[in-house]
Write a structure and sequence with these properties.
Blueprint: H1 13-23, E1 27-28, H2 37-47, H3 53-64, H4 66-73, E2 79-84, H5 90-101, E3 106-112, H6 115-128, E4 133-134, E5 137-138, H7 141-149, E6 156-161, H8 171-184, E7 190-196, H9 201-207, H10 214-229, E8 239-246, E9 251-258, E10 262-266, E11 271-275, E12 280-287, H11 291-300, E13 303-310, E14 316-323
Parallel strand pairs: 1-12, 2-3, 2-6, 3-4, 3-5, 6-7
Antiparallel strand pairs: 7-14, 8-9, 9-12, 10-11, 13-14
Helix pairs in contact: 2-10, 3-5, 4-5, 7-8
Bound molecules: N,N,N-trimethyl-histidine.
N,N,N-trimethyl-histidine binds next to helix 10 and strand 12.
């Protein structure tokens, strides 16, 4: 590879960001790189874990309020449902089933960073909802929003981001993400977004530290992915999965902590890094919210909350936003 200083060329954003994160202090890897085929699979297992309450709570919300949500979404001549981070679409299908059954015209546009997830979802929908119009798109949120902004149709658009996916962004990035969405919205359009609430810290911590070790495997999978695709040699067994929750900020952070001194070669990056014993690699934030924080984020982004739906335990909220 060229030079380690300025002007270095990278094959992909993945190469560039892994290089930057592992040469920084403290070290970090963005959680968006969790989702390769194995990562998608592990996340699906996480969604079925007893400790990982988020999925069940949001499913309950969509299942309980399907009718009200569907009528909120419907436009005069149908609408487009753009879902950022669609994943396996399990929760969205509750709504899609209802829309198809009620003959509400909708085009479903699932977007995900994982092409693998999109392929599975498309196949699944072809069988379970053959009459539904589906247009998939692969990309990061930022890439995809650019295209969304340039769309020509004047059909009502509902942008949906479920699962508290926004929680992977710190507040500053969340505001720029929400502002980017806001810029693409007309006065008629809606943003429907799921936020995981602040709650008993034990409940939160257990969700990221399950007893079966699936979350640990999910966290470590990013190192396996780097080993495979960047020809690297992380000793994955020599890392401890370490989630934390700060009840003051509402931030859950996940780390991989090296249990020993390690020299790691990342051949495709022409990079060698050293880890000291007990040095950490920060891999994810999963932000928790309350109504005040969400309201503040919305206003910072030129949005306002027009409605909200909660599960019976009040663990999770889906907020509906419009342009200010
Ligand atoms: C998909 C980003 C919402 O942060 O709760 C699950 C991912 N990480 N267990 C989350 C995740 C560890 C999840 N999101």
């Amino acid at each position: 590879m060229k030079t380690k200083k300025t002007g270095q060329q990278f094959d992909t954003t993945f190469h560039k960001e892994i290089y930057e994160g592992l040469t920084a202090f403290p070290k970090y890897i963005s959680s968006k790189w969790f989702y390769d085929k194995e990562g998608d699979h592990l996340f699906q297992q996480i969604m079925h874990l007893p400790e990982y309450y988020l999925t069940g709570c949001e499913y309950e919300i969509l299942d309980t309020h399907t009718n009200e949500i569907a009528s909120l979404f419907s436009g005069k001549d149908g609408f487009e449902l753009v879902e950022l981070g669609a994943g396996d679409g399990k929760k969205t299908k509750v709504l899609l089933n209802h829309l198809v059954a009620k003959n509400i015209p909708v085009t479903y546009k699932p977007i995900d960073i994982s092409q693998n997830a999109l392929d599975n979802l498309e196949q699944d929908l072809q069988i379970s909802l053959p009459d539904l119009q589906v247009v998939t798109q692969q990309g990061t949120y930022f890439e995809v929003l650019e295209k969304l902004c340039k769309r020509s149709g004047q059909k009502k658009t509902v942008i949906m981001v479920l699962g508290s996916n926004i929680g992977n962004l710190n507040h500053e990035h969340a505001v720029s993400f929400l502002s980017d969405i806001q810029k693409c919205m007309t006065a008629d359009d809606l943003l429907f977004m799921g936020f995981d609430r602040k709650k008993d810290p034990t409940v939160i911590l257990n969700a990221y530290n399950d007893s079966q070790g699936v979350t640990e495997a999910f966290n470590k999978n990013v190192l396996k992915r780097i080993n495979k695709s960047l020809d690297a040699n992380f000793d994955c067994e020599a890392f401890k999965h370490w989630p934390t929750y700060d009840p003051e900020t509402g931030t859950t952070k996940s780390f991989l902590v090296s249990t020993k001194a390690q020299k790691v070669n990342l051949n495709k990056l022409n990079l060698e890094i050293n880890l000291s014993p007990w040095e950490s690699i920060h891999t994810e934030i999963s932000q928790k919210y309350d109504d005040h924080i969400v309201d503040w984020l919305a206003r910072q982004s030129g949005l306002r909350v027009i409605q909200q739906f909660e599960d019976s335990k009040r663990y999770f909220t889906d907020y509906v936003f419009k342009k200010l």
